[in-house]
Design brief:
Strand order of the largest sheet: 1-2-3
Low-confidence stretches: none
Radius of gyration: 24 Å
Number of helices: 14
Mean pLDDT: 83
Structural class: mainly alpha
Number of strands: 3
Largest sheet: 3 strands, antiparallel
Strand content: under 5%
């Protein structure tokens, strides 16, 4: 009531900067606070059609450097985590204290995140009718909405929405069967915890995130991993799996892979080809698999020549 947006000046910006410095925020948190102010002033200017100097953008206040250090969870750590969670939830069930808790869904939720590489909100919103299949009913891929991109770009209708195609690998297929795929195929039931309907996106998503942090700390590894590391595991392993020494743009003649990704790659076909992909794999398994693929290709080529 006493301060209007038009009254912001250099002195106020300096006072804000000093205030944030005194709070001793981490660099990322410090930058995030400034982003809130930047976003608000941008919205205000557009909403009320008022030309307004954005006092908090990067030109006037330098952001602090943020060094990214993505970390993944090892196979041994993940197995230890799953054992701990499973054992603890069984104890809670025996003590009849699990009635209103969501920990019982954590093991399947962690596995589903690891095997799909999706964000927590996407994991909890996966449905059986999003699974595309072969004619014989074998799952090929899961087509899901890219919630983050659609939210940022404000894509609200089906024609403008972005979608992601998750390959149904052998290991993901087994997990889907465990989670009731055969009984629920083609239905709009959720894959994880289908009985939870009300506010599931927030409740389950938070349970996965908080549960991972809580149980991982109990492993006493000396590291601080979060639920996000499961996505990092998936994408890192997938990158290694698909790296075969050939850069496609060298063959296509395009300057960057971004053009190929947007205009040429049929993503559902790529998803279909990844059935043998494993998040936790090793170079020996990968070498044997590539050798098998090469041998199959040679057999097909010989058949064609004959």
């Amino acid at each position: 009531k006493t301060l209007t947006v038009e009254m912001i000046n250099d002195r106020m910006v300096g006072e804000l900067f000093r205030y944030l410095e005194e709070r001793k925020f981490a660099n990322r948190t410090f930058n995030k606070h400034l982003t809130y102010y930047t976003s608000f002033l941008k919205w205000y200017s557009e909403e009320f059609d008022i030309p307004l100097k954005n006092w908090f953008d990067g030109k006037r206040i330098n952001r602090k450097p943020v060094h990214h250090n993505p970390q993944s969870i090892s196979r041994e750590e993940f197995e230890a985590l799953m054992n701990k969670v499973t054992l603890e939830t069984k104890r809670m069930e025996l003590g009849n204290s699990l009635k209103h808790k969501l920990d019982i869904y954590l093991p399947d939720g962690f596995l589903l995140a690891l095997e799909t590489g999706r964000r927590r909100e996407e994991v909890v919103m996966l449905k059986h009718n999003e699974i595309a299949t072969e004619k014989d009913g074998t799952p090929l891929y899961i087509k899901i909405e890219d919630y983050k991109v659609n939210r940022i770009q404000k894509h609200s209708n089906e024609e403008s929405k972005s979608y992601i195609y998750i390959p149904v690998t052998d290991s993901l297929h087994k997990l889907l069967l465990k989670l009731g795929y055969e009984e629920n195929k083609g239905t709009d039931k959720y894959i994880l915890a289908p009985e939870i309907i009300e506010n599931r996106e927030k409740r389950l998503a938070n349970a996965l995130s908080e549960g991972f942090t809580r149980y991982y700390k109990q492993l006493n590894t000396g590291r601080e991993l979060t639920f996000k590391c499961l996505r990092k595991n998936y994408l890192t392993s997938l990158s290694i799996y698909m790296r075969q020494g050939i850069d496609i743009k060298e063959i296509s003649g395009h300057s960057t892979n971004a053009v190929l990704d947007e205009h040429y790659f049929v993503k559902k076909e790529i998803a279909k080809s990844l059935r043998k992909f494993k998040v936790f794999s090793n170079e020996l398994e990968r070498g044997e698999e590539l050798e098998e693929i090469r041998n199959e290709s040679k057999v097909k080529q010989n058949d064609l020549e004959r």
